[in-house]
Specification:
With 97 residues, this protein is mainly beta. It contains one helix and seven strands; from the N terminus they run E-E-E-E-E-H-E-E.
């Protein structure tokens, strides 16, 4: 599994969840997300070779995702300004329960 530097889950007013991660090499191919409620983590299978483990996920995020079938993921590229990021791509990943 690949190391990962950071991520952020955003919960909208409608209780939808979106994941923002740094752009990774290659494109997602049939991405899938697996929830690990016991360890408060989410595993993103971007493609057959790129697996990302997100640890210490907030319980509220996991609770919402446990009722959903799809997670919207946005990948961003860091810029020189640490408060800004450039959009790379967005896609949906099927959630495995």
């Amino acid at each position: 599994m690949a190391d990962f530097d950071g991520f952020e889950f955003i919960i909208t007013e409608e209780n939808d969840v979106m994941l923002i991660i740094y752009a990774r090499a290659g494109n997602p191919e049939k991405p899938v997300v697996k929830l690990d409620l016991e360890h408060n983590s989410v595993v993103l299978y971007r493609n057959q070779k790129d697996v990302v483990t997100l640890e210490n996920v907030e319980e509220k995020v996991l609770e919402i995702l446990s009722k959903e079938n799809l997670l919207l993921i946005t990948e961003v590229v860091p810029t020189k300004n640490p408060l800004e990021q450039e959009f790379s791509q967005a896609y949906g990943a099927r959630i495995i329960h």
